[in-house]
């Protein structure tokens, strides 16, 4: 194995926190590795550079992974650490998710200086979010709300909220916790009210397919229930060819050797929802997710599936 082991990541505060958590876990799992043996390599992605337009207008979620994956394929990094929800279901040939550490809280968090929850917002309040999933579910609960795009990293969005650019926003509990903002993460929205994004709260460590040495190195970090849950959710995403243009939500939970998946597709305005629920053996996670995706596709009107046109 070539040293140092180079970990590719985006350069945001959250991405670096996640990459450093993986580095710390690797060093703890392999005491023979010296601190200098594992190196963090920040990589600027197209998604980081272009912040004034919706992701759907410039190419989708893959814009947060493309340059990092190119470095991985070129061999300049040994692994890539991603927020797994940012990784498209269809990955470049030669790359795989080789490890999923234990998942953080997958829920969304409601943030506002004028209300404690979505239901308490005044009529016509402005909700800022770059996520069509969050906008759709918010409008389903509160069709009177106005919505606007709110892109940027966590701190940027919090600053815009504090400055009054929007009345409320919604962020991932996992990101807030990893940045030490447990006080904000405490205002989490129950999944019964807002189902999370596919793989939200999970870190995915991407490696080259066939790199047995790196896969073995990562084995102690893999959390089987988290890997199985996200496999089911990503199976649902893959079957629907989901993108950031499509309001999809899914949450799988593993109980012993069984897994339960709730998966939903929404119209952009939240007025329509198609849901599938699956319960079965955890070792069939991908099949269950894809089966849920097929059910939703069969029941959904064609105009709810823009990515499949």
The major pleated sheet works out as: 5 strands, mixed
Percent of residues in beta strands?
15-25%
Oligomer: single chain
Q: SSE string, helix = H, strand = E? A: EHEHHHEEEEHEHEHHEHHEEEH
Structural class: alpha/beta
| Tally of DSSP helical segments | 11
Question: Low-confidence spans: pLDDT under 50, at least 5 residues?
Answer: none
Strand order of the largest sheet: 2-1-3-9-4
The proportion of residues forming helix, as a percent range, comes to 25-40%
Shape: globular
Question: In angstroms, what is the radius of gyration?
Answer: 19 Å
Mean pLDDT: 92
The CA-CA distance between the termini, in Å, is 44 Å
Beta strands, count: 12
Commentary on this structure:
With 309 residues, the protein is an alpha/beta fold. Helices cover 33% and strands 22% of the residues. Helix 10 (224-239) runs parallel beside helix 11 (285-299). The protein is globular, with a radius of gyration of 19 Å. The mean pLDDT is 92.
Identify the notable features of this structure and list them briefly.
alpha/beta, 12 strands, globular, 4-stranded mixed β-sheet, 5-stranded mixed β-sheet, 309 residues
């Amino acid at each position: 194995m070539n040293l140092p082991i180079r970990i590719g990541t985006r350069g945001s505060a959250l991405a670096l926190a996640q990459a450093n958590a993986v580095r710390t876990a690797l060093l703890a799992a392999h005491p023979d590795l010296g601190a200098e043996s594992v190196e963090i390599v920040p990589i600027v992605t197209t998604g980081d550079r272009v912040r004034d337009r919706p992701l759907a207008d410039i190419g989708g979620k893959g814009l947060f992974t493309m340059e990092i994956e190119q470095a991985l394929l070129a061999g300049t990094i040994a692994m890539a650490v991603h927020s797994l929800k940012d990784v498209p279901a269809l990955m470049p040939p030669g790359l795989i998710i080789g490890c999923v550490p234990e998942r953080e809280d997958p829920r969304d968090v409601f943030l506002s200086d004028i209300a404690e929850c979505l239901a308490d917002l005044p009529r016509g309040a402005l909700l800022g979010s770059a996520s069509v999933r969050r906008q759709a579910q918010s409008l389903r609960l509160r069709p009177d709300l106005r919505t606007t795009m709110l892109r940027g990293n966590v701190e940027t969005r919090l600053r815009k909220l504090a400055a009054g650019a929007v009345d409320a926003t919604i962020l991932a509990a996992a990101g807030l916790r990893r940045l030490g903002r447990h006080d904000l993460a405490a205002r989490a929205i129950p999944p019964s009210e807002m189902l999370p994004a596919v793989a939200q709260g999970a870190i995915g460590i991407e490696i080259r397919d066939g790199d047995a040495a790196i896969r073995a190195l990562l084995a102690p970090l893999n959390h089987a229930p988290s890997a199985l849950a996200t496999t089911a959710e990503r199976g649902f995403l893959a079957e629907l060819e989901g993108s950031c243009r499509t309001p999809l939500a899914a949450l799988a939970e593993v109980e012993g050797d069984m897994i339960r998946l709730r998966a939903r597709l929404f119209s952009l305005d939240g007025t329509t929802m198609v849901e599938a629920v699956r319960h079965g053996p955890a070792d069939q996670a991908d099949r269950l997710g894809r089966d849920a995706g097929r059910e939703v596709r069969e029941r959904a009107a064609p105009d709810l599936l823009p990515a499949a046109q």
